[in-house]
Amino acid sequence: MAKKEYSFYPGCSSERKASASNYMVSVEAMCKTLDVKLNEIPDWNCCGASIGYAEGGELPRHIMNARNIALSESNNPGQDIVATCAACWLGTKETQERVAHSGELLADINSILGAAGLKYEGRQPVRHMFEVLIEDLGYDALKQPVVKPLEGVKIAGYVGCQTNRPFGVAGESFENPKYLDKLTEIMGAEPVEKYDQKVTCCGGALAFSEPEKSQAQIKKIIESAYDFGADMIVTPCPVCQMNTEVYQGQINKKYGTKFNIPVVYYSQLMTVAYGGTAKEAGLDGNIIRATKLEEIAAKK
Questions:
Q1: pLDDT of amino acid 103
Q2: Which residues contact 263 (CB under 8 A, 6 or more apart)?
Q3: Is Oxidoreductase given among the entry's keywords (predicted)?
Q4: Helices first, then strands: H and E counts in the chain
Q5: Which domain holds residue 83?
Q6: How many structural domains does the chain have?
């Protein structure tokens, strides 16, 4: 039996063959090393993160999240719900918080879910994978499996906004969260302590609807990493990763910059430091190659 077991909500972007499937690959490798078992919620659905932009209304979004929680409660009882996607974690946790304080919303949700033979209880905590790593395992335990320290690599920890507010990671500052810096350090790399854009919003879905605004934000995030000498950026959010990586070419064309900085997930750093191959770390799924990580992974 695994040391830790959780009810796992992959989310649309992180599932296999989706835009952040390399995140899922590296999470699986990381969890195998840490003896963590993720029990996927059967028949899970989208968290509804995009519904707000499409003016789909509050109730449909909460119904979608409540359905996932109800499925988890019936299939993985007694296990905390864990998400790797910041938007999925935030949306699911928000629904749980709102339902806990509204008998009317609870009644509406169970009336609708009842037609599908489901019932929402809301008793399972909803957590981001990073909360599990820090709170359940701890930095000392995360450091123990390191066999290939990421020496000589300077990393800017980009937390983003969804993983930071309104809930965030317990004990961390909203203005200057340090957990990515701490993780970077115990993996043997050098955190860019003065990186000043770690909680700046990447623009999210504005990348589609108002790209000029989003790209102006992304430029600040990347430029700051360069200014402080970072070799790469690390993030816990699939949307942050996608926006800061995919749009570098367009930003270069618009602003005359020459950005080409890798943007990776914390789980990719950990998998390489734990001795995993570049493929096991999902590095083949990055658009901008993290060559320094690939080189470390290739060492015998």
A1: 95
A2: 158, 232, 233, 234, 235, 240, 241, 244, 245, 286, 288
A3: yes
A4: 13, 8
A5: 4-129
A6: 2
Dist. CA 263–CA 243, nearest whole Å: 10
8 A C-beta contact, residue 269 and residue 189: yes
Bridge partners of 155, per DSSP, are 191, 232
What b-and-e string marks burial along 184-194, b requiring 16 or more CB atoms within 10 Å of the CB? bbbbbbbbbee
In this structure, what token pair is assigned to residue 291?
């060559």
Would you state the structure tokens that stand for residue 75, as one six-digit string?
């299939």
Residue 99 sits in the same domain as residue 174: no
What the block records as the tokens of 90 is: 């935030």
Q: Which residue has the tokens 């949307």?
A: 239
Please enumerate in sequence order all residues whose Cβ is within 8 A of that of 278, keeping only pairs 6 or more positions apart, or say none: 272, 284, 293, 294, 297, 298
CATH code of 253's domain: 3.40.50.11810
Token pair recorded at residue 256: 């005359």
Measured distance CA(92)–CA(97) in Å, rounded? 9
